[in-house]
Amino acid sequence: MLRLVAAGLALSSLVSCSDLLKPKPPVAASYLYGDDPVTFKSPEERLLQGHWDNDPSLTGPLHIVIDLKQQKIIYYKGGTEIGLAPISTGKEGHGTPRGNFKILAKDAKKRSNSYGELVDSAGNVVDPDFVMGSKPIPAGLKYRGAPMFSGMQIVGGFWMHEGEVTGYPVSHGCIRLPEKMAKIFFANTPIGTPVTIR
Description:
The protein is of the alpha+beta class. The protein has helices at 2-21, 43-49, 179-188, and strands at 27-28, 39-40, 51-52, 62-67, 72-77, 80-86, 99-102, 105-107, 111-119, 125-131, 142-147, 151-155, 158-162, 175-177, 194-197. It is elongated, with a radius of gyration of 22 Å. The relative contact order is 0.20.
């Protein structure tokens, strides 16, 4: 009898475990980027890419907080969190500055003035890791800055923009966000929005 009960328990635990393996429906949210809502394939992707839940009934000032230790950005409206995304900030020797700032400028097609590549007249990349000012640009080549699309200037040469996010500091000081979230933040952030980097 005891064996039957144990077998029944084992079978029921197998059934519940198999339920965990079933594909989950897409996770949708009320994203406000054009007419195309962003849908993530799973809760895990949502955590990795971020979220945006801008309830239209919420009122109050916008405020962006960039947490260097946790490598995340939090977007507030009237003191309520409406957005969150993982980030990658400045690596050692290229630290992201701490302090209180405001969004100074926005440029959807921003490119770096300092880091990029040299290309020939046909558009072929000749030097993929060129640093502006490090050496003269050879005749017949031109500089093409690294993409910093959906860029928002915080202070000086430090921008928040689309880029590779690793979960740890790897940039030259800018704040990189996943592409989806960078576009959403860009579309919903007016110039003058306060930014705290801590």
